[in-house]
Write a structure and sequence with these properties.
The chain has about 450 residues and is mainly α. It has helices spanning about 5-35, 40-55, 60-70, 75-90, 95-105, 110-120, 125-140, 145-155, 160-175, 175-190, 195-205, 210-225, 230-240, 245-260, 265-275, 280-290, 295-310, 315-325, 330-345, 345-360, 365-380, 380-395, 400-410, 415-425, 435-445. It starts with 5 loop residues before the first helix and ends with a helix.
Length: about 450
């Protein structure tokens, strides 16, 4: 019986196709790995996607696509690929810890806890997962569970100061300052240059009104480990708390010398001189700060505050606008710019900036007060009352807030409510710029 060659030829072609496709996918995977290692993430994604057309369920390719998309800030794609990667390979702890970290950053602590616990079931001493788990518990907030988790870190890595530091953070969240201080001291003994621990010790001392102890502690640390920019910044903080402006300035200038590329000493110098009314020095410090970091929104904000206090509205607006250019929606700058615009009669633009500030900082009652008052000026009295009612609840002792609420209620037709709010403003023991206007408005209601 003659042999039909066609099936054999078909089988040969199929085998070639499979082998060729396999080589094609492997080649693009290798190129993707090279691009990924070189941090060329966009090129890596392109190569991995070519490989994925033939190997859509390759655990390595899917895993790498997740990490590359995360590196580029493509969070939706990263979530999708990393979620698939953990299903394809249940032992892929990197995918799960990355997901847990993303959930934590995106304020989804319950999801972060679930992913971290899944990692810890397979790898109980995974320090990254333990750190994420503890941080998630702190967010919920559940400091007791965080403390339990951080103690596991300290036990797993007894020579790493970060474990003891985190234990101290959790203890402090429970109001156990003395125990927390002991943990921070232990962390500092493990690593004398671990300044985060020293900062917490100093913070506790200052909170308990032990500024002499705080000052001595920082000076002792400088004598022990030598000069550093961060230590002198911490020393300046202690001097500021003690009301010692000149020593604080000297410490900050020393910090700037020791860390010429650090922006913090100049920002602190700007704050210090702004508080003293030395506007020229404050502006000079912001110039130095923006030279080091041209995209530092806070530096431009402080610059705007200095110009505003000097009465230079035009340059204050320009500085706040610069802050918003480098950090769109930056709440302090948007808030202050809104106030300035409202004072110059540009209420439409003022309202836009006030609403942007409130969206970016929904929990800040002072920013909400700005929005409420601009809504009042804009003639939207009902919405102004709604916003200012919440502000008055958050800041019940602020007479300016009570004045704003009273005025808004009066225009909204709630005369009784207006009277209560304005009376609270007028009888406040605190002085405030609108006291005369509040007194007149209250008298007009009677």
């Amino acid at each position: 019986m003659p042999i039909d060659a066609r099936p054999a030829i078909a089988a040969c072609i199929a085998l070639f196709a499979v082998t060729g496709c396999s080589r094609y996918a492997a080649s693009h995977t290798a190129r993707g790995d090279a691009d990924f290692n070189a941090k060329n993430y966009a090129d890596a994604i392109d190569e991995y996607q070519k490989a994925a057309r033939l190997r859509p369920d390759d655990p390595h390719v899917v895993h790498q696509l997740g990490l590359a998309n995360k590196a580029l800030g493509h969070r939706r794609e990263a979530y999708g690929y990393l979620g698939k990667a953990r299903l394809l390979d249940p032992n892929d702890t990197t995918a799960r810890t990355t997901l847990a970290s993303m959930y934590l950053t995106d304020r989804l602590p319950d999801s972060a806890i679930a992913e971290a616990n899944a990692v810890l079931q397979k790898s109980p001493r995974n320090l990254e997962a333990l750190n994420i788990l503890g941080s998630a518990y702190m967010t919920t907030p559940n400091p007791a569970k965080a403390l339990e988790t951080y103690r596991r870190i300290a036990e797993s890595a007894p020579n790493d100061p970060r474990g003891q530091y985190l234990v101290g953070v959790a203890l402090l969240a429970q109001g156990k300052a003395a125990e927390a201080s002991q943990s921070f001291e232990t962390a500092l003994k493990l690593s004398p240059t671990f300044l985060d621990a020293l900062s917490q010790i100093v913070k506790i001392d200052l909170a308990e009104k032990h500024s002499d102890a705080a000052l001595a502690r920082v000076k002792q640390q400088i004598a022990t480990v030598g000069d550093s920019a961060r230590l002198y910044e911490l020393l300046a903080s202690v001097h500021v708390t003690r009301g010692e402006e000149q020593p604080a300035e000297l410490a900050l200038r020393k910090a700037a010398t020791l860390g010429p590329k650090r922006v913090d000493p100049y920002l602190r110098l700007a704050e210090l001189n702004l508080g003293r009314g030395n506007f020229a020095a404050a502006l000079a410090a912001t110039d130095s700060a923006t030279t080091i970091d041209p995209r530092n929104a806070y530096a431009f904000f402080v610059r705007g505050s200095a110009f505003e206090q000097m009465g230079d509205t035009a340059r204050a607006k320009a500085a706040y606008t610069q802050a918003l250019a480098v950090s769109p929606g930056y709440p302090p700058a948007a808030n202050n710019l809104a106030e300035l615009l409202s004072k110059t009669g540009d209420l439409d633009q003022a309202l836009q900036f006030a609403e942007a500030a409130a969206r970016s900082a929904p929990g800040d009652p002072r920013i909400a007060d700005t929005l409420g008052w601009i809504l009042y000026q804009h003639g939207d009295f009902r919405r102004a009352v709604a916003v200012l009612n919440a502000v008055a609840t958050a800041l019940p002792s602020e007479p300016t807030v009570a004045y704003h609420l009273g005025m808004a209620k009066a225009r909204a037709g709630d005369v009784a409510g207006a009277r209560v709010a304005l009376n609270r403003a007028v009888t406040s023991p605190a002085s405030f710029p609108e006291k005369g206007a509040a007194t007149k408005a209250l008298a007009d209601l009677r």
